[in-house]
Amino acid sequence: MEVFSYNADEILQTAVSIEKNASEYYREASVASAGFEKQRNLFLYLCRMENEHAQTFSQLREGLSQVEKGFRVYDPGNEMLFYLESMTGLHGWEGKAGPAAKLTGKESVREVLITAIAAEKDTIILYNFLKDYVPEEKGRSIVERVLKEEMMHVAILNRELDNVK
Question: How many domains does the chain have?
Fold first, then answer.
């Protein structure tokens, strides 16, 4: 079995991809919920926040030194490889069932919310891992801020889910 290793740059690139794809999901959700103005506005708000997160992680990547980009953490059991693949390959991004999955427009607002909540929770787990790869002086507190915002997304989505029951 090949042993994989990761560096901060690769993990941050994964985070950028997740956030860009999450933004697209929430944009699609806003279109699919056109008849439900409150939910549509919520999805547009989350779309903007995910775009901001993607920009934040891109800026963190740009701020890494060559030494920081070269520092690798090894994953002898390939556990992190499988986890990252599930986040970026199988789930694709926050809210999506897979990279090729598109909202059909037949999903209920409730279904969209449930899917988004599950994906946001997965992202929180990933970002808890990610923050350990970002040096304090390079922006660990920024990753922690984004992590708190993702937690806020779960709370907002859960509150909205309670309202659509």
Answer: 1
Q: Which residues of 25-51 are buried (b: 16+ CB within 10 A; e: fewer)?
A: bbbbbbebbeebeebbebbbebbebbb
User: Domain with 34 in it: what CATH number?
Assistant: 1.20.1260.10
Q: Which run of H or E residues covers position 75?
A: strand 73-75
Q: Does pLDDT of 1 surpass 80? A: no
d(CA 5, CA 103): 34
Tokens (6 digits) for 57: 């992680």
- Give per-residue pLDDT as tens, 30-54: 988 878 888 899 999 999 999 999 9
Residue 109, domain extent = 4-163
Q: How far apart are CA 80 and CA 109, in angstroms?
A: 33
